[in-house]
């Protein structure tokens, strides 16, 4: 989700997948949210445990098909502290761009921007998360 996205069109499509983080990232996110927004997030209330082939993770909870952090106006309540996978959207894998995003369809991301996001994905997303194909909730 970007600040200037026309969410009337997409209804924040990018916030209808649960972002996955490592346990350390979940703890760091909770600390940042406390500092930035003064909100106390309880790990169990906002995250579900997820199991992959390479480790255990935490997935941001979904309510009625959308992220628990999305507000009534379809804006992220923790935008400045959002998970890396949210920050790097519409890149959803090392070399995959989500073609359903209206900003992608309208070419609002330049090729350079997408290439930068892909490079960041390869470096900044946890190595184990990058390797996972499927997450199971436990
Ligand atoms: S990044 Fe794409 S899907 Fe997400 S809010 Fe913006 S236009 Fe919508
Ligand atoms: S954390 Fe924020 S940006 Fe990420 S999916 Fe949830 S509402 Fe969207």
Short structural description:
With 138 residues, the chain is an alpha+beta fold. It is built from 7 helices and 8 strands. The longest helix is centred in the first third of the chain and has 15 residues, at 23-37.
Structural Rg: 15 Å
Low-confidence stretches: none
Approximate helicity band: 25-40%
Globally, the shape reads globular
Overall pLDDT, averaged? 94
Bound molecules: iron/sulfur cluster
Biggest beta sheet attributes: 4 strands, antiparallel
Structural class, by secondary structure, is: alpha+beta
Topology, number of strands: 8
Describe, in plain words, how this protein is organized in 3D:
By secondary structure, the protein is α+β, with helices and mostly antiparallel strands. The protein has one domain. Helix content is 36%, strand content 17%. It contains 7 helices and 8 strands, in the order αβααββββαββαααβ. The strands form 3 sheets. A 4-stranded antiparallel β-sheet has the order 1-3-2-8. The radius of gyration is 15 Å and the shape is globular. The model has no long low-confidence stretch (mean pLDDT 94). Bound molecules: iron/sulfur cluster (2 copies). Residues 1, 15, 19, 60, 67, 69-70, 76, 78, 82-83, 86 line the site of one iron/sulfur cluster. One iron/sulfur cluster binds at residues 1, 15, 19, 60, 67, 69-70, 76, 78, 82-83, 86.
């Amino acid at each position: 989700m970007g600040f200037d996205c026309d969410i009337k069109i997409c209804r924040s499509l990018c916030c209808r997948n649960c972002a996955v983080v490592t346990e350390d990232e979940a703890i760091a996110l909770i600390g940042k949210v406390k500092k930035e927004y003064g909100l106390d997030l309880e790990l169990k209330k906002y995250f579900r445990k997820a199991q992959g082939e390479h480790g255990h993770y935490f997935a941001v909870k979904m309510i009625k098909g959308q992220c628990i952090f999305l507000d009534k106006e379809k804006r992220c309540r923790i935008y400045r502290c959002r998970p890396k996978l949210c920050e790097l959207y519409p890149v959803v894998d090392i070399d995959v761009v989500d073609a359903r995003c209206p900003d992608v369809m309208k070419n609002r991301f330049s090729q350079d921007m997408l290439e930068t996001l892909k490079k960041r994905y390869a470096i900044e997303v946890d190595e184990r998360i990058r390797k996972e194909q499927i997450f199971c909730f436990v």
